């Protein structure tokens, strides 16, 4: 069997790689190797997720571990409750933006610290995929306790702290949950906020009638974009299924690249915590460095991926970290990513500045135009990177290998990296205020990659 254990989580196809027995054994392995007393368990809206969460919980209970259930929720709720409850670990059953026939687990350890290959997943993988019998507890009284469903109020209160003391401007906001898990959270926040929410595909639906919610894909943006235009909304917000990623549209229905939101949120966070460190990923960098430096912050790059960001956020005590792929990390949220705190930070910026989202990002887009992420299916990602490097090294660029291959020239730069979860090579290009050069370099690099 192909292992569903990836770089920093578990994802695989149903039923060959991920199924109820696998989930049960995963719970047993966590109990055997981590010796926790209590573990938070949550699940997304997918068809099989409740059953897998139940099997996972049973594996923990039969191993003497108490389970703190969140039920259907977003991944960030598991992060929050793990830290808030003092549990020894938290496990979310989700496959994020993978196709419908996938599922898996995202795991954090005590304090919502990242579970990585080195500190947990390698050992869990070996035990789960081995033929070793993992014994259950010897008697009924030694089993773990299934606790009552965790109360969401503390989580909602934490989200509202993001806007505390701010005079929010009344706005009309389109919310596109994509039939994922974000809708119920918007319903709980609604009574506390001066916004009129236009809700589309709002209810969680395990049949996913509109497919997997993944606004990174251009074809998934039309409904939210058109709804903003049709309703004359000030803003549009969309999430993926487990809502750990947040995407925004301006009042014209234009999708805003996550790259520019990183700089915008960084600016907001630096007003609250002057001089703090901001983390960004190496795919697109110039705009973030420019904004953070101008705002008096310290900009530092971090390898792409939630495990890397969670670790480095703690290491640097960074107030905020942002990935252009729409993951946003906050120091006061156990250094974890939140798709809710991100848009709340944006509405604070809109309210305090009096500007529209379009106005706030227009100058930044003009100063540092970017390609957005372009994906290529290649036979050998490493070989492709080596050939691209050979092509451009004679031009004496600044070369970085923090995450994939980055090359920076005087007026343009690019990053080329292999996906951690899919067989893809991802390209990002940016320039200094030169859209013609951007188009030229995107075409040149695309041709080189396709040529093999």
Mean pLDDT: 96
- Derived from helix and strand composition plus strand pairing, the structural class reads alpha/beta
Rg is 22 Å
- How much strand content do the residues show? 15-25%
Structural summary, described in words:
Helix 8 (258-272) runs parallel beside helix 9 and helix 8 (258-272) packs across helix 11 (339-353). The relative contact order is 0.10. Helices cover 37% and strands 21% of the residues. The protein has helices at residues 20-34, 49-61, 75-85, 117-129, 153-161, 183-190, 222-231, 258-272, 286-294, 306-316, 339-353, 357-367, 381-392, 435-450; strands at residues 10-13, 38-43, 66-72, 89-93, 102-109, 171-176, 195-200, 235-239, 246-249, 255-256, 277-280, 298-301, 320-322, 328-330, 336-337, 374-376, 398-400, 405-408, 412-418, 425-431. The strands form 4 sheets. A 5-stranded mixed beta sheet has the order 1-5-4-2-3, with helices on both faces. Strands 7-6-8-9-10 form a 5-stranded mixed beta sheet, with helices on both faces. It has a 5-stranded mixed beta sheet with strand order 12-11-13-14-15, with helices on both faces. By secondary structure, it is of the alpha/beta class.
Q: Secondary-structure blueprint of this entry?
A:
Layout: E1 10-13, H1 20-34, E2 38-43, H2 49-61, E3 66-72, H3 75-85, E4 89-93, E5 102-109, H4 117-129, H5 153-161, E6 171-176, H6 183-190, E7 195-200, H7 222-231, E8 235-239, E9 246-249, E10 255-256, H8 258-272, E11 277-280, H9 286-294, E12 298-301, H10 306-316, E13 320-322, E14 328-330, E15 336-337, H11 339-353, H12 357-367, E16 374-376, H13 381-392, E17 398-400, E18 405-408, E19 412-418, E20 425-431, H14 435-450
């Amino acid at each position: 069997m192909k292992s569903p254990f990836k770089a920093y989580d578990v994802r695989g196809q149903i039923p060959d790689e991920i199924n109820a027995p696998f989930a049960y054994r995963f719970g047993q392995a966590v109990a055997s190797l981590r010796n926790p007393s209590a573990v938070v368990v949550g699940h997304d809206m997918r068809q099989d997720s409740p059953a897998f969460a139940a099997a996972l919980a049973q594996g923990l209970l039969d191993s003497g571990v108490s389970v703190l259930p969140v039920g259907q929720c977003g991944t960030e709720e598991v992060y929050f409750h793990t830290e808030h409850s003092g549990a020894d670990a938290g496990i979310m059953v989700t496959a994020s933006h993978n196709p419908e026939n996938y599922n898996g687990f995202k795991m954090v350890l005590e304090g919502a610290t990242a579970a990585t290959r080195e500190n947990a997943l390698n050992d869990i993988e070996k035990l789960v995929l081995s033929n070793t019998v993992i014994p259950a507890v010897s008697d009924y009284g030694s089993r773990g306790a299934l606790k009552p469903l965790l109360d969401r109020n503390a989580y909602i209160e934490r989200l509202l702290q993001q806007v505390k003391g701010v005079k929010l401007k009344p706005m009309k906001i389109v919310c596109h949950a994509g039939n994922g898990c974000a809708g119920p959270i918007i319903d709980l926040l609604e009574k506390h906020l001066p916004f009129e929410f236009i809700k589309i595909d709002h209810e969680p639906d395990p049949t996913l009638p509109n497919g997997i919610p993944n606004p990174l894909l251009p074809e998934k943006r039309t409904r939210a974009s058109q709804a903003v235009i049709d309703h004359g909304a000030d803003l549009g917000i969309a999430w993926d299924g487990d809502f750990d990623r947040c995407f925004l549209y301006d009042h014209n229905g234009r999708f805003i690249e996550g790259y520019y939101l990183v700089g915008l949120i960084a600016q907001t966070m630096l007003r609250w915590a002057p001089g703090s460190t901001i983390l960004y990923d190496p795919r697109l960098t110039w705009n973030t460095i420019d904004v953070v430096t101008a705002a008096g912050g310290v900009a530092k790059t971090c390898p792409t991926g939630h495990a890397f960001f969670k670790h480095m956020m703690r290491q640097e005590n960074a107030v905020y970290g942002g990935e252009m792929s729409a993951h946003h990390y906050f120091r006061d949220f156990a250094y974890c990513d939140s798709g809710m705190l991100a848009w709340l930070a944006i509405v604070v910026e809109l309210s305090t500045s009096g500007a529209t989202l379009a106005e706030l990002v227009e100058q930044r887009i003009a100063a540092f135009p970017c390609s957005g992420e372009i994906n290529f299916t290649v036979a050998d990602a490493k070989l492709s990177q080596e050939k691209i490097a050979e092509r451009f090294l004679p031009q004496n660029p600044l070369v970085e290998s923090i995450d994939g291959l980055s090359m920076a020239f005087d007026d343009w730069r690019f990053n080329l990296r292999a996906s951690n979860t899919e067989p893809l090579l991802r390209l990002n290009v940016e320039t200094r205020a030169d859209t013609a050069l951007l188009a030229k370099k995107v075409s040149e690099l695309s041709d080189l990659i396709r040529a093999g």
